[in-house]
Amino acid sequence: MASSKPVVFNNTVLRDGHQSLAATRMPTSMMLPICPLLDSMDFGALETWGGATIDSGLRFLGEFPFDRLDALKKACPKTKHMMLFRGQNIVAYSHFPDDVVQAFVRTSAKHGMDIFRIFDALNDTRNMECAIKAVKEVGKEAHGTICYTTSPVHTVDTFIRLGVELEEMGCDAVVLKDMAGLIPPYVAHEIISGLKSNIKIPVIIHTHETAGMGAPTYYAAVDAGVDSIDTSIAPFANGTGQPDTARMQALLKDHPRCPSYDTKKLRELHLYFKKIYDELGFYTSKKNEGIDTDVLNYQVPGGMLSNFRVQLKEQKMEDKFDQVFAEVPYVREKLGWIPLVTPTSQIVGTQAMMNVKFGRWKMFTPQAMDIALGYYGRTPAPVDAEVRKLAEEKSGKPPIDCRPADLKKPGMEDLREQLREKGIKDDDEHCVIYAMFPQQLEDLYKKPRSAYALKSPADKKPEGAANPSSGTFKISIDGAAPHTVKVQQL
Question: How many Cβ atoms sit within 10 Å of the Cβ of residue 197?
């Protein structure tokens, strides 16, 4: 046994739980009544912010992101607060200047964020360095996060080396992030054992139950000595979410490392969130609640899989489902075997659909071209030479090998000026949100409150007729024409 200490549970119900199972539509008002109980559980951390919650809160709920953080920090003062942070992308889809990243970290820390889980979609640690340093400078915890994926160039040793590098960069912990629920128990045991043998800082694992392997994978990780695992509260758990807390504790019964979270309180939490789940019924889907073994065949995140079914139907390409998803690994390989996590999952999936619809690389999206040319960072394997040449010809942009943010000028002063011109507060809070979501921030001050009303479960269309959890957002990289993507954010 690698460790005799009880494993620590972090809880994701206020972030990844409803993001994975209810389209990130849980408003702060639904969270606050249960916060005292969550705060009394002695979880290692509560994931309360980051990921898609900042975008969705602005876009669909009419919430200014820092107001949520303030409210939740006040309601849960005892437990550490944790957020998911996309490195140089912050919580958006393109790279930002260093001063914007630093300002976001400073401001988030000021509003009470304790733990920043920092990842990069390509596992390019250069894109994580600025955020890690910024977190350390404000005295908070930087958790270096490795995106798990499978490919010929991703091995157990690959992930262990990344963990060692993240420790050397000053991280306070290393997280193995399995965003698609693909990691088998044995592989998880091998990676966690290797990390525990090679680094001194805590090791954490995060997975999803999409393919039914989440709970057994956690069990294997606990055997291997993992320090913490992420669980949620049913019904915002299991399926495309994290394993349920009560279920995971029951699975570990009589295990030397089984924790002792209050089962009566866990029951109270379940009953409360069941009511909330029912109230958010318009945004939930039966397809996300069960086991989807298709994810094992296509090696893509479950949310991406379910949402692309709908996208293909809207494009009148439902008969091309197998072709499109067979194209995903081809696109991944040509783009250097990149992991599939926001924003790369959306980019690769869309390019695969374009390849099937128009012919390979006939419709080369601006974002896929930027990956091929290095504007997202260093890919795990070299980009196919012909694809890179085609991207250079079509875009008129040269390939780069430097850290992409090195090409960006400081942005905070320009953001302040733009906000002043629009009559919006120009403090750091508004600047960093405006940098990522300018239209959504402007809409927040223009739209009537009724525009952000949640829909009733009674308004829900039959399963398969539409997918309200898909979300639509536009990515515009370095001034390129906006590209509409309609798949789940991760």
Answer: 11
Cβ(137)–Cβ(104) under 8 Å?
A: no
pLDDT tens digits, residue range 379-436? 999 999 999 999 999 999 999 999 999 999 999 999 999 999 999 999 999 999 999 9
Helices and strands in the chain: count of H runs, count of E runs: 21, 10
End-to-end CA distance of the chain: 33
Q: φ, ψ for residue 49 (rounded to 5)? A: -155, 175
Q: Would you say the C-alpha torsion 166, 170, 171, 173 has a positive or negative sign?
A: positive
Beta bridge partners, 466, equal 463
> How far apart, in whole angstroms, are the C-alpha atoms of residue 383 and residue 371?
9
Cβ neighbours for 165, distance < 8 A, ≥ 6 positions apart: 125
pLDDT at 2: 59
Rounded to 5 degrees, φ, ψ at 89 are: -85, -10
Alpha-carbon distance values, 480 to 85, 94, 369, 423 (Å) = 24, 11, 11, 27
Q: Can you read off the two tokens belonging to residue 231? A: 């669980």
* Nearest-angstrom CA–CA distance, 273 and 287: 19
Helix, strand, coil % over all residues of the chain, rounded to 5: 50, 10, 40
Cβ neighbours for 342, distance < 8 A, ≥ 6 positions apart: 52, 86, 93, 121, 489, 490
DSSP 324-375: HHHHHHHHHHHTTS----TTHHHHHHHHHHHHHHH-TTTS--HHHHHHHHTT
Mean pLDDT confidence for 188-197: 98
Longest dimension (CA), the chain: 63
